[in-house]
């Protein structure tokens, strides 16, 4: 949707107020409502789907494969497919780069090691069926749910294969499969890293800008969050899909510090909301 | 004919090119250890005849060439502002930083290729860009976009083509984010110079700096990283120095478990200082050549 100059100016002025007035009456730190379903794909180790109220939808499937760790450059790999965009387009490539980068740096791959030689490699297949605003936070929240509900078969063969080469064998019983969470030490919880997008407008930062808001933003920030802390990668981005956003300009450095503080303050709430969502998700519920 | 019914002020008013917002009070940094040395770089403009602007930059073993085509007229529908695009490409046999992680070239394939002195296997004949090239292109595009006065060029396109002729393979191992950020930094500086050379109107020359922070030691323009350590952070940031040091591009990478605001401040200070030094060099290049 392309806004007229009058609409743009109205929207800009209301968002640059303090506190900002957003078109859907959200406060500056509020996410759009979403509904999610986890562990519904029978053929994959973990899966999740998130739908937003504007019809955006993302499905992620996680599959695990046993590999020789020495032959792999990384134990986690992502692929993103977005309806309406070519796979080799800049848009899709960048999203893929962001997600891969986040997981490579912040996913605890040590828990995927099976023996000294073998390891699980996780493949994230991500489909964005429909989207209106920049889909990175949608994809990343879905990947959180999918990784969190990923179950890996229980290893029954010997862990130590340094002396005698042995192929790992697994328990036949799927009920014995373990979540990645179960491999962690007592007191630790497995919370995969997530991205949030922040829109910069005037002196304000708004979390999770919608497609109309994206068209008048002065800049955008992408902040990642893991283990109760804002971490890297952090970068700025032009969230409007066309470079025809005349408001686009540089940002003041205080806004970066403010963005990190905002992430530290509100991301734990996002994580706990997603965790509650997983707990309340019943196995039998229909996915439609 | 001027309007005589209203008070319009003098005709030749010049609006200063700064916005009124105050800079944050500079926190007096303690005497943190800091390594400031900037590598010398070689710069030349106007080497490509049929481009509107071009630049050639050598720093360390990095060689970057940028050409700017535009404003070029477009046919078809009317647009009131120029559209701006950047495409960054590595020459086919140049190793790209972190390519085994992002470009789907497996270790076995690239190590096999290394033995025959070719680092990138199946790229000869590729048509599209790799993930890393896409990422660098969009960083440059996002950073230069706020500086160009696109309103001056309706119905036109401005295209920037970056070719990376050689990369600094001495920097770290194959897994080094710092290497990638350092390259991005110099690509951006070279692109800014090419944009100036093309004569396209800009609000300010964007320059950038790269810094690496490890054990509270800040290194500007890092060339060799000591052994990889938990808690090291690298940052590239691009600024419009004459417009209140506005940040037009920022990209932070690291291996730490949490990111303190003080670390970010420290890195941005470093990047800003470096960008000013680069800017001074570019200024003197243009005034003396």
Automatic annotation (TrEMBL), chain A:
Main subcellular location: cytoplasm
Biological processes annotated in GO: exonucleolytic trimming to generate mature 3'-end of 5.8S rRNA from tricistronic rRNA transcript (SSU-rRNA, 5.8S rRNA, LSU-rRNA); nuclear mRNA surveillance; nuclear polyadenylation-dependent rRNA catabolic process; rRNA catabolic process; TRAMP-dependent tRNA surveillance pathway; U1 snRNA 3'-end processing; U4 snRNA 3'-end processing; U5 snRNA 3'-end processing
Location relative to the cell: Cytoplasm; Nucleus, Nucleolus
Organism in which the protein naturally occurs: Scheffersomyces stipitis (strain ATCC 58785 / CBS 6054 / NBRC 10063 / NRRL Y-11545)
GO cellular component: cytoplasmic exosome (RNase complex); nuclear exosome (RNase complex); nucleolus
Higher taxonomy: Eukaryota, Fungi, Dikarya, Ascomycota, Saccharomycotina
Protein name: Ribosomal RNA-processing protein 42
Transmembrane segments: none
UniProt key word Phosphoprotein: no
UniProtKB/TrEMBL annotation, chain B:
Official protein name in the record: Exosome exoribonuclease
Domain of life of the source: Eukaryota
PANTHER family: EXOSOME COMPLEX COMPONENT, EXOSOME COMPLEX COMPONENT MTR3
Segments traversing the membrane: none
Gene3D superfamilies: GHMP Kinase, N-terminal domain
GO CC annotation: cytoplasmic exosome (RNase complex); nuclear exosome (RNase complex); nucleolus
E.C. number: 2.7.7.56
InterPro entries from the UniProt entry: ExoRNase_PH_dom1, PNPase/RNase_PH_dom_sf, Ribosomal_Su5_D2-typ_SF, RNase_PH
Family membership: Belongs to the RNase PH family.
Cellular location(s): Cytoplasm; Nucleus
Exoribonuclease phosphorolytic domain: residues covered: 38-201
Keywords, alphabetical: Cytoplasm, Exosome, Nucleotidyltransferase, Nucleus, RNA-binding, rRNA processing, Transferase
Signal peptide interval: none
Gene Ontology BP annotations: exonucleolytic trimming to generate mature 3'-end of 5.8S rRNA from tricistronic rRNA transcript (SSU-rRNA, 5.8S rRNA, LSU-rRNA); nuclear mRNA surveillance; poly(A)-dependent snoRNA 3'-end processing; rRNA catabolic process; TRAMP-dependent tRNA surveillance pathway; U4 snRNA 3'-end processing
SUPFAM superfamilies: Ribosomal protein S5 domain 2-like
High-level lineage: Eukaryota, Fungi, Dikarya, Ascomycota, Saccharomycotina
Gene Ontology MF annotations: RNA binding; tRNA nucleotidyltransferase activity
Pfam families found in the cross-reference section: RNase_PH
Major place of residence: cytoplasm
